[in-house]
Every structure is written in structure tokens, then in C-alpha cells.
Automatic annotation (TrEMBL):
Pfam family, one: Acyl-CoA_dh_1
Protein name stated in the entry: Acyl-CoA dehydrogenase
Domain Acyl-CoA dehydrogenase/oxidase N-terminal: 10-120
Presence of the UniProt keyword Nucleotide-binding in the record: no
Domain annotation Acyl-CoA oxidase/dehydrogenase middle: ranges: 124-222
SUPFAM superfamilies named among the record's database cross-references: Acyl-CoA dehydrogenase C-terminal domain-like, Acyl-CoA dehydrogenase NM domain-like
Alphabetized InterPro entries for the sequence: Acyl-CoA_DH_CS, Acyl-CoA_Oxase/DH_mid-dom, Acyl-CoA_Oxase/DH_mid-dom_sf, AcylCo_DH-like_C, AcylCo_DH/oxidase_C, AcylCoA_DH/ox_N, AcylCoA_DH/ox_N_sf, AcylCoA_DH/oxidase_NM_dom_sf
Database matches in PANTHER family: ACYL-COA DEHYDROGENASE (PTHR43884), ISOVALERYL-COA DEHYDROGENASE, MITOCHONDRIAL-RELATED (PTHR43884:SF12)
GO MF terms held by the record: acyl-CoA dehydrogenase activity; flavin adenine dinucleotide binding
Keywords: FAD, Flavoprotein, Oxidoreductase
Similarity comment: Belongs to the acyl-CoA dehydrogenase family.
Amino acid sequence: MVLDFRLPSEYEDLRKTVEEFAREEVAPVIGDYYERCEFPYPIVAKMGQMGLLGLPFPEEHGGMGGDYFALCVTLEELARVDSSVAITVEAATSLGAMPIYRFGTDEQKARWLPSLTSGEMLGAFGLTEPGSGSDAGALATTARLEGDEWVINGTKAFITNSGTDITGLVTVAAVTGTLPDGRKEISSIIVPSGTPGFTVSKKYSKVGWNASDTRELSFSDCRVPAANLLGERGRGFAQFLRTLDEGRVAIAALSVGLAQGCVDESVRYAHERETFGAKIGTYQAIQFKIAEMEARVHTARLAYYEAASRMLRGEPFKKQAAIAKLVSSEAAMDNARDATQIFGGYGFMNEYPVGRFYRDAKILEIGEGTSEVQKMLIARELGLR
Ligand SMILES: Cc1cc2nc3c(=O)[nH]c(=O)nc-3n(C[C@H](O)[C@H](O)[C@H](O)COP(=O)(O)OP(=O)(O)OC[C@H]3O[C@@H](n4cnc5c(N)ncnc54)[C@H](O)[C@@H]3O)c2cc1C
């Protein structure tokens, strides 16, 4: 057996293309979007033209015919420069389009996927509610079938990509009945933007990810056709568990990218900045900090590569995805703290990307399952219940 950790050439070519795009077209402008808390439409349009929003989807649906690992490699390179742009792609693909591709009917795929995979339209994933996040099964939004329509009532919190000018739909998880054993029957329903009774609030004021779109959504007697049910009735819980398992690998890749960006910036600055008559990179205190940062990125990257490879081979990957998400989000947070320290006062200024990395790192330990939830999942996989 040959153990080979090099990227196959098609992924390496993609990585280089995205690296160049991020360096040349995202890095020079994203700081201003971030400070203005503005969604970067021209960057998203360019990513659509490049096919980045269609990477893991077959060509028959307008995609690039790649796989989930191609998406992960892309997210890593984008987040190395900026996480708002990376999370916009992650949420659009992994959370927005993927559930439709995986669970949708032929009609739903034909209607939505070409626009979603081209980036002409963004989809959103509406699971979290003001009263239910980690305990997602406690959701309270309801959908009752009246004739040939679902009537939806409830509120969703923190939904990414849900209120942009190009958002086309949100997939809403809702209670659609009670199972014979008394548990909730949960289903997913596609709600197109602009449906009467569906209101999108103004953007949250956030600590980080300031150039990404996050909103609260409310549904008040919102009616959509019965045919908007995603997949089978009552399969909503299983669907979102699957979506989140995959999403964790993507968030791990995004975290590795942020952690790598911290190393890149720190090495560069350590060569430039002088104190006491010498470059700070000559001090062992700085060298050790950067060496630890590099070690964290390296180990976190191996963790997400392994989770992704199991996923692509069709093997169980729940534990590996949770481990990858846990260690890489912690690596991102630790590296962002260390990079900011290496930059001293300049690390606290918006002029340098490390301040942005610092603000963007924390959410990685929270979104798509907190670190505590990842530990619960890992323990459960070890038979501890
Ligand atoms: C910017 C942003 C974007 C997001 N985008 C989306 C999106 O697109 N779609 C979507 O559906 N959701 C989205 N979310 C929601 C996100 O997934 C949740 O915030 C996250 O899962 C945590 O849920 P919560 O905020 O309700 O925290 P809670 O579940 O209330 O947790 C609070 C604290 O308690 C801990 N905790 C909870 N239960 C346990 C336990 N049993 N044991 C130990 N500790 C526990 C948690 O780890 C956490 O530290 C987004 C959130 C943010 C901030």
C-alpha cells in the first residue's frame, strides 16, 4: 500500500486557480466590504462565472462535475484570504444547493439547481431557531398541509445567505405532524424568496463574517405548494443530520484556510518588523509561536482530508467529520490569537487582515455544531451515551 498525502493534480490545479483568484481579486477589496458590512456581489458573481458555486454537482445540473473535496480545497484557499467570501460559498453549496441535489425530486432539481450551481441564485438552509440551535430537534416552526399547500408558521435565526438580492430560496425544517411514538415528525420544505408571509429581517450586527449575509426569517401563514416538500415527508431530521455531517468537513476546511492565512501573514510580518535592532522573526519567542501555528494547520488539514476521503469513499465519516471540525476550528482560533499578538498594535487595526481573522475565527467553534456538540458526537461514536 502507498500512503500518499499529495493532492492529485486536478485538485492541485483547482487550488492554484482559487489561490490566485483570492490573492488578486479578493484580498485587495474585501477589507472595505467588511468594514461597510456589505455583501460582495461582484466577487460572488465572479466566483459563479468560475464555477466555484457548482463544484460538487454533476454537469447535467449545471455543475462542474467535481466532488465535495474540490469544494473543501476551494473553501480552504478562499478562507486563507477571507472567511466571509468562503462562508458565502460554503452556505450556498453545502447548505443551499446540496439538500436539493441529494433529496429533491427531478422537478425540484430541474427548477432550482441550474441557477444555484451557476451562482446566479443563492439558496439558504433554515434549521436554527431563536430557541433551538444545538438541540435542533427542538424546533418549533410548523407546516400544516391544507389542500395542496403547506402553511408555514415560525421563526428561523442566524440564516446565512437568506436575504441577499440574489437569494432564491430557503429550505425550512418544520414540524409537520406527530409520529405514532409521540415524537415530532420533521420535514424540509422549499420556500422561494418573496413568498407572501415570508419576511426577511434586516442583517444582524455581527462580531465577524461582516461581508456575509445573516438574517432572522419569519413565516406567518406562509403558503407554498405541497410539491415544495423536499424528499419524503418526515425525513427532515435525517436530511439535516446528513447535511450537517458534510458541512462540518467544509467548515473544517474553511477553518484550516483561516489558520493558514494567519501563518502566511505572520511569517511575512516576522521578516519585516524590527524591534531592538533585529527582525522579530529572529526571536525564538516569535519563531516558536509560528512553528506551533504551522503544526496546528498541518494536523488540522490532515484531519479534514481524512474525513473527506472517507466521505467520498462512501464510508461512515461522522466521527472523523466531528474531529476535523473540532480541531480545525480550535486551530483557527488559536492561530488568529497568536497572529494578532505577533502583529502587536497593528494586529488590532483593520488595515491588516489578521484583525479580521481574529474576529472571524470565533464563529468557527460555534456554527454547524459547537465544539461541545462535536465532542458529544465523538463520544457517542465511541459508544458513550
Ligand atoms: C453567523 C452565523 C451563521 C449561521 N448560519 C446558519 C445557517 O445558515 N443555517 C442554520 O440553520 N443555522 C445557522 N447558524 C446557527 C448555528 O448553527 C447555531 O448558532 C449553533 O448551532 C449553536 O446553536 P445556538 O446558537 O442556539 O447555541 P445553543 O445551542 O443555545 O448553545 C449555547 C451553549 O451551550 C452549549 N451546549 C448546548 N447543549 C449542550 C450540551 N448538551 N452539552 C454541553 N454543552 C451544550 C453549546 O455548545 C453552547 O456553548 C448560524 C449561526 C451564526 C452565528
